[in-house]
Amino acid sequence: MEILLLLFIPLLGGFLLAFFGNHRLAAELNSIISFLTLINAGFLAARIISYGSIVVFHEQFFVDPFNIFLVALTALVAFTTSLFSRPYMRIEQHHGKLTENRLRLYHCMYQFFTFTMLLALLTNNMGILWVAMEAATLTTVLLVSLYRTPASLEAAWKYFILCGVGIAQALFGTILFYFAAEKLLGIHSSLLWTHLDEVKNRLDPTVMSVAFVFLLVGYGTKVGLAPMHNWLPDAHAEGPTPISAVLSGLLLNVALYAVVRCKILTDGALHNHFAGNLMIGFGLLSLIVAVFSLSRQKDIKRLFGYSSIEHMGLITFAFGMGGPIANFAGLLHMTVHSLTKSAIFFTVGHAAQKTRTQIMENIRGLLVQSPTVGWGLMLGSLAILGMPPFGVFASEFLILTTAMKQEPWATPLLLIALAVAFAAIFGKVQPMVFGETTAQRTPHPPALLPVFLHLSFVLMLGLFIPMYLANWYREAAGLIGY
Amino acid sequence: MTIPYGFIFQFIQLIMALVLSPMFLGWINQCRCWLQNRKGPGVFQPYRQLVKLFYKDAVLAENASPLFRMTPYFLFACMCLAGTIVPVLATNLPFASVADVIVLVGIFALARVFLALAAMDIGTAFGNLGARREMMIGFLAEPALLMVLFTLAFISHSTNLTTIVDTLSHTRFIIYPSMAFAMAAYLMVLLAENSRIPVDNPSTHLELTMIHEAMMLEYSARHLALLEWASSIKLYDYFVIGFALFVPWGIASGSHLSSMLLAFLALFIKLAVAGFGLALIEALSAKMRIFRVPEFLGTAFMLAVLGTLTHFLLEA
Amino acid sequence: MSLFNSSIQGLPLSIILDILVYWLVIGFSGLIFIHNRKIVSQILFPLGASGGIVMIIITAASIAHSPSSAILSLGLPDLPFHIRLDALSAFFLFLLGISSTGICFFSSGYFSRDGNFSPGLVCLQFHLFLVSMAFVFLADDAYLFMIAWETMALSSYFLVVTDHKVPEIRKAGYIYLLMAHISATAVLLCFGVLQKAGPQGIGGSYTFEMMRHLNPDSFWATAAFLLALFGFGAKGGLLPVHVWLPEAHPAAPSPVSALMSGVMLKTAIYGLLRVTFDLLHLQIWWWGILVLTLGLVTAFFGVIFSAVQNDMKRLLAYSSIENIGIILSGVGLTITFQSYHMQTLAALALIATLYHCLNHACFKSLLFLSTGSVLHATEERNLGKLGGLIHRMPWVAFLALIGTLAIAGLPPLNGFVSEWLLLQTFLLTTGFPQPYLNMLIPVAAAGLVLVAAVAAYVMVKFYALIFLGQPREVRQHEAKDANYWERLGLSWLASCCVLLGLFPVEVIKLLNTVPGLLLGQATKKVASQANWLFLTPLSPDRASYSPMLFFGAAAIIILITFLGVRLVYHGRVRRSSPWDCGYPMQTSRMQETAESFGQPIRTIFSPFFRMHSELPSPSDLEPHYRNITEDRFWYLLYFPIGRFFHFLSNLFGRLQQGRIAIYLLYSFLTLILLLLLI
Amino acid sequence: MIPLSSQLLNLLAALFLLISFAMLAQRRILSLIHLYACQGLVLSLSALIVAYSTSQSHLYYSMFLNFALKVLIVPWILHRLIHRLNVQWDVETLINIPTIMLLGLALVIFAFNLSLPIVHLAGTINRSTLGIALASVLLSFLMMITRSKAVSQVIGFLALENSLIFAATSITYGMPMMVELGIALDVLVGIFILGVFFFHIRNQFDSLELKHMEKLKDN
Questions:
Q1: Helix axes C504-511, C87-110, angle to 10 degrees
Q2: Which of B60, B123, B131 is closest, CB to CB, to C470?
């Protein structure tokens, strides 16, 4: 029941906002809907934790610790982002960047986007998963191009074409899955993940490997794995900041979730580490490409877009290695990354709004202008760079030490990459936060509750992971297996 | 019933250091006069000098700090201590175990640092210049000195001077080739540390090349007297250390008055010869430019290291 | 406290944890009074100092006890924070307590003066720094160690950039945190190697307890050791990864510089010792030689560079590099001895090393703090512009003199004791299997002596230019002496220097449990048959030293001389202007400057510097002389690396050049490639 | 003896591939749209045949769906678009068609080789169509790469999607209905969004040349 509600709320909210999206209180409504979604997700999560995974509605929906954890995360970040976007978008409107209709479109699409995310996570049907991903692309395309500036249009176009093609390849992979499973499962249930999971050992290896290649390239495009990553920085930089936040915080995770689901099946079919090795390779490649691109950036949101690629690479690497610790670390990293990165985008949004620019040379002395923004950005960047005691370090610690056990050759690469990323990002963040500025101190402190909420959560995860959360991660990690 | 003897020796040594050192300085100057066929002022000239200085009124610069006034006493004390540690007459010195050769070098360094600080206290150009040069010579000479001592220490497996002297003099006689290097190095260090020609000229003022004198320019009367006295004791100390290390024969190990007297005699002879030797060196060699001092002391250092290495090559 | 509920054996450990919590509370209460300078400086910092004092007592009492450990219910699942208090950590905590007490006292005076910083924030970062360092010493699993390690770096970074309006300080902070992070990655990799052989599973082998039990083979052991050497060396300022140190230490406020130099650098030594002797069980002789050589090179480099500095804090920073070098050479000796199972000698070397750590913590903190007072009194850090402060600030001058003599390694103060012990160790080294080593050791000893001698030179420069002579600038005429809190802090540290110098035997009795822990229980106690008066490392006839008697005798002689002179003669004194060979028109500008005092070193060791100097030509109307001495390593190592990475990033930047067709092509080719691979 | 239906199906597959090649080489946008419609027709015909020969009822629906969407609606929308944007006559400059053709040929061979090991276990009546489907996927991919105009790129995208559906219907009697519906919906929405996009792009860059959209890059 929660599942239907969970899907229904954002859907209804989307339609509501399609009509009242330009109302005075639309933003509040948006937050309220997201909040309801969050509550609902909370209930569902509680139930899953207590009773274990469930399959409902002609096996069309299915919830296990792995995806419920992402559902909860999605709902949480969606809610906080809506909180952040309420004042933010209002100021954007005052700056004259948005018309009322655009605002309506924004709110409506925001809810639809949440809906597609949740659908992609909750469905049991690989086909529906694909459909949801495609729908997510469509909604976000509209959101990225919200400002209708040439740059935003270009970004949206690239995003659409690249991800569309990628998704198309994913569809081919899905068809091949179907093709492989059909003879075993018949027409109706042969795309249902649960059934596929049962028979995965008997699926034909060649088909599965080809299929996985298509799926990896396809969904990998959406994850932002190099060399299919090129859309990501543009989309992050040109869209409105809340959208950058949810793109980094949610969409990439969900795409990666799809990849991991496929990996599970492929591993079952192939009995070798083929899928894992592919993911390790792509993870490392993305990591390295991202960190070396970091130092060239001028636009702050581009910078953190690349940092998202970097972290997605790291997570992919972790899942590629597999095993209890690596998966645990991967899940943990998913969590902390989406929390931290969205927090960073919140602060970046405020900073960019204050200084009316996204070019980093022109952002200086944030600490003087508004201490909260300054500290938020500083702490957030340090957290994302894997500085203890923040949670990112915890996951990176686990990933690195596991890599030392399983892929010793890769560890130096990882460490060098992380060091380079540190040098690049911190070298750019420090002058923005510190130093003198001509701008005077802003009168009222910005509403940064979400930022510090996220950061404190990340901090907690670094120092202390509650037992139920840990068990949850463990079960999820167990599901992913090797 | 040896302990009182030990303390007696100790005390005698201290007194000797105080009393003999000016005379030794006088002897050296006398020899130099003879070698430059002049008629010297006599061996006791330094005593007269000291007494005269003690009677004078002290003149201090306005901005002289307490440090400046205390330094002569510190210096004097350091040199006296050094004198007591070195076995000059006998080796069973109770106080010798207070400090070994490394501490000895440390004492000299302490004295040097205090003198340099005092020299810079007034803030005159000459004082600064002297202090800088003195410290430079210090950090070049100290390693050489320590390496010399290390050679000996390696030979005798000890850094206690008394033990070294015991092993060298009272065990059966062995020829140590490393000693030759060590001795040469020690001689060079001695010249540098006591500001003798060719490194510095003790009997000069108002020269841009002066080192030791430049540091004492601002001193007068009793302070100057103490400093002069201290530097003569330093010279004496260096010589007796040299004797203890390289020609330890005659130093009493037991505590009989006979051997005591013998040691006394031996010391006199050594001092006389060595003083003359020093005078000879000074008379023959010309003072070198300050820029060449590093090379000079570098050579000393190299020699000392070579000494150690030869010890490990040939003797170990 | 609910956090520490789970299984703490032993009272000392729990008390130490309480102290840490106490410090944390102080720090966070700084946030409450974030702008209230009076409360923060007059109340919070002294409270922190009280914590330090308790720390000293507890550790001194518990250092001889058997290791006690605890598990905090924090950290990762299956990997809660393990902490352990053994002799080594107790010693370093003792060190932390000693210098932090003095520094806290001083800070309460220092931060009471106004500057553009928010005192509460500084208070928080300061105490966080203390706590993280303590946790570094206490940590018993890799995760907690890394967290404490990085938190230490982070909090100190924020302290360094306290005055972030100044661009140089920002740059220094950046370099500092970057190097700290790189060193941390190396350390992390080292732990990764150490736990490599361990079983799978979270928390599998991340605890040091586990690491102690899995013995990696010599290859992986060497890898771990080299990584540790790099990582910890980078933290400690080992060549060639020292470049951050002379930037960061001067940039920080003086109490912070003191804490960084005095204690934080020792965490590197601690880590190296912990990994090399505690976690690894086999040592290979060439490790020791490597460390010894590196240490000596570092020491030499540090000392000659400190000799040519003009900025007093930079000078001290380089001298920290020197001291770390000396300490590391001691560590190297220890490793070599241990690898040849000469445990007594190893123990002696280790004792000397630890002793020097302790001494350096005292006198370097003391000197940094005194520069802080000078800085406050004159707003001037260029040695060439100071001078004559002994008249204006007698307290600081006197206490700094003690520190100066101590760091110059002069008897009877503490610096001399540790160098004496180290030299003794060198001298006792004869029994190596390789003749080469036997040759090398004396040369190394010579190098050490050279370093010590140059250090004396440097310190004369430091002290004389700041406190002696005539004021070189007008401003120094109204310089004020340190206030009471500052005096308290300074005198605390100064008295530590004196006591450590005068009672070495007692201190060594304290340290003696550490070799037992690290080198095996069989180790014979150092200075076992020494009574409190005479320090005899092995046997009285080999070497002995009694600072107390030395001091007493010197004092007596001074007294007698003084009285004698006064009684026999007179004490009349006249004051007049300095004579100076009768040269007229002496001005204070005719004194030595920092550059001129460094000149001998520059000329003698010129190949080591990267200098360019602007000399006046004879026809200059207003001649001016400038000399810039730089570190070659920037040009030999760091700039090339930077260029290389820049080149790489340009290469990768080509990927993103805007044409959508190209992007599609990437995706297409990837697909084809993978399909071919199958 | 191969049954007639499968012979027909193979014929349609060949046609499909042929059309893909034609699209790859076609310069004029209007005829591109026509080709796309033909492709849709072939697609729905093949669906019909499969449905008939295997009497799978849901395939009829999917056939109707495809027909409606790919033969009527989408081409109609595209026509409207290019008329409104009045680009129906413009011709794009393809670089060197023979090379592209050769590339396409290579791709076809590659696709066939790739599909060989898979095909043999296809129990369906349509052995070799997987290779063709894969080939046409790659071909339309290539087409997207080589095009320099927004509209034609989109047509390439649609062709890609077409060939996917072709693969679905021909090798695995089509996907489950719900999925097909979802896909169709996505395509429809996508077309609408793209249509809106064209206008924005034209307003911003006053042309649909992709070369205007190369501003965002690292430098």
A1: 130
A2: B123
Q: Which residues of B touch C579 (CB under 8 A)?
A: 59, 61, 124, 217-218
- Give how far D208 is from chain C: nearest CA, Å: 14
User: Residue C9: pLDDT above 80?
Assistant: no
A175, A192, A231, best to mutate vs chain D, most D CBs in 10 Å: A175
What is the pTM (predicted TM-score) of this model?
A: 0.91
Asked if D110 is an interface residue toward chain C (Cβ–Cβ < 8 A), one would say: yes
Task: Tell me which residue in D144, D216, D219 faces C664 most closely, judged by beta carbons.
Answer: D144
pLDDT tens profile C654-666: 888 888 888 888 9
Taking a C-beta distance cutoff of 8 angstroms, is the pair A471, A57 a contact? no
CA-based nearest residue to A348, from A328, A333, A363: A363
Distance from CA of C290 to the nearest CA of D (A): 44
Residues of chain B positioned with their CB less than 8 A from the CB of C541: 158, 160, 163
Compute the distance between CA of residue C461 and CA of residue A457 in angstroms, rounded to an integer. 53
CA closest to A388 among chain C residues: C147
Substitution target in D139, D214, D216 with the highest count of C β-carbons within 10 Å is: D214
Binary contact (C388, B125; C-beta < 8 A): no
User: pLDDT tens-digit profile of C427-463?
Assistant: 877 677 777 787 788 888 888 988 998 999 999 999 9
CB pairs under 8 A between A and D: 126
| A292-301, B187-196, C332-341, C438-447: least confident range | C438-447
User: Helix, strand, coil shares of chain A as percentages rounded to 5?
Assistant: 80, 0, 15
Enter the DSSP assignment of C627. Answer: E
Q: A199-243, pLDDT tens digit by residue?
A: 888 888 888 888 899 999 999 999 988 888 889 998 988 889 999
Are residues C138 and C168 in contact, defined by beta-carbon separation less than 8 angstroms? no
- The domain spans of chain D are 4-212
Q: Measure CB to CB from residue C557 to each of B77, B147, B294 and give the nearest one.
A: B77
Q: Does the beta carbon of A293 lie under 8 angstroms from any beta carbon of chain C? A: yes
Distances (CA, A) of A390 to A336, A467, A472: 9, 18, 20
- SS3 state of residue C74: strand
Q: Identify the CA nearest to C553 among candidates A152, B85, A203.
A: B85
In contact, B89 and B12? CB cutoff 8 Å: yes
Residue D93 has pLDDT above 80, yes or no: no
> CA–CA separation, C551 vs C410, rounded Å?
12
pLDDT tens string B244-276: 888 887 777 666 777 778 888 888 888 999 999
Dihedral angle sign, alpha carbons of residues A277, A279, A285, A291:
negative
The secondary structure of chain C in percent helix, strand, coil, rounded to multiples of 5, reads: 70, 5, 25
Residues of C in contact with A463 (CB under 8 A): 74-75, 147
Longest dimension (CA), chain A: 71
Q: What is the pLDDT of residues B23-36, one digit of tens each?
A: 999 999 899 898 88
Please answer yes or no on whether D145 and C658 come within 8 Å at the CB atom. no
pLDDT above 70: residue C473 = yes
Which of C410, C452, C460 lies closest to B135 in space, CA to CA? Answer: C460
Cα distance from N-terminal residue to C-terminal residue, chain A: 32
**Euclidean distance between CA atoms D49 and D8, whole angstroms:** 8
Query: What tokens were used for D196?
Result: 């809106």
Is C453 close to B78, i.e. CB distance below 8 A? no
Q: Give me the residue from D110, D114, D217 closest to C656, CB to CB.
A: D217
Number of H helices, E strands in chain B: 11, 1
The structural domains of chain B, with segments of one domain joined by +, span: 3-315
Contact C65, C86 (CB under 8 A): no
For C575, list phi and psi in degrees, rounded to 5.
Answer: -105, 140
